[in-house]
Design goal:
alpha/beta, single chain
């Protein structure tokens, strides 16, 4: 009976995203109840920080395609909230499902002008993590030369904005619209980020109003 329950949970976890519905709030207590099952679905996650473990697996639930990829987490002093990329060696793997990805999470808790995951609520954490996992999904569809082309996208603001907004839209389509909205609202209206950083966010990513319009489109469908 216990085995059947675990199998049912795993199946629900793996394919639940396909309904493409927008959930206003994700309950961290419910995620905690199925955390062990989520870890079975995504067995290759390494060093997920305990403070963000529930948000990490909650976001991963929307990306079952990544279950065979190794995803490593590192806490670092970086200039943004977090970033995500394939390892250099992964560029040369013939099997894209075997690529290894790294998520670096900012741990500069003493710098008010830098937004950290620690600053925001659970829903917003899931949203920004979901955005990063969508990058992995994008990378998984690309061969070596296409990955290089993605790297070139980061060299100009115009190309980076086009790319990042595509990722934003795809994250919303996965069902994480409200989570992205909460993250964006915090960044734009509540954070202590510098004006320079906020201007960068406005130029490159979708803002709260853009996200709300997309959520509305999803509901109409």
């Amino acid at each position: 009976m216990r085995f059947l329950l675990s199998l049912l949970l795993a199946t629900t976890i793996t394919f639940g995203y396909a309904q493409n519905s927008q959930v206003r709030y994700i309950d961290s207590n419910l995620v905690k109840l199925k955390l062990d099952s989520l870890k079975e679905v995504f067995p290759l996650v390494e060093n997920a920080p305990r403070a963000y473990e529930l948000a990490i697996y909650s976001a991963l639930e929307y990306y079952p395609e990544l279950k065979d990829n190794k995803i490593r987490f590192k806490e670092k002093k970086i200039k943004t909230t977090l970033n995500a990329r394939p390892t250099f060696a992964s560029f040369f793997y013939k099997k894209r499902s075997k690529r290894v990805y790294v998520v670096r999470i900012n741990n500069l808790f003493d710098k008010k002008e830098i937004i950290t995951l620690n600053d925001v609520g659970f829903n917003a954490q899931v949203g920004v993590l979901g955005h990063e996992f969508n990058h992995f999904l994008d990378y998984s569809k690309r061969d070596f030369f296409q990955l290089i082309d993605r790297g070139v996208d980061y060299l100009t603001t115009r190309r980076k904005a086009k790319f990042e907004r595509e990722i934003d839209r795809e994250t919303i389509e996965r069902g994480l619209g409200w989570q992205c909205y909460e993250w964006s609202c915090y960044v734009h209206y509540e954070s202590h980020a510098t004006e320079e950083y906020l201007q960068f966010k406005r130029e490159v990513y979708l803002g709260p109003d853009d996200i709300l319009r997309l959520i509305g489109d999803e509901w109409e469908e």
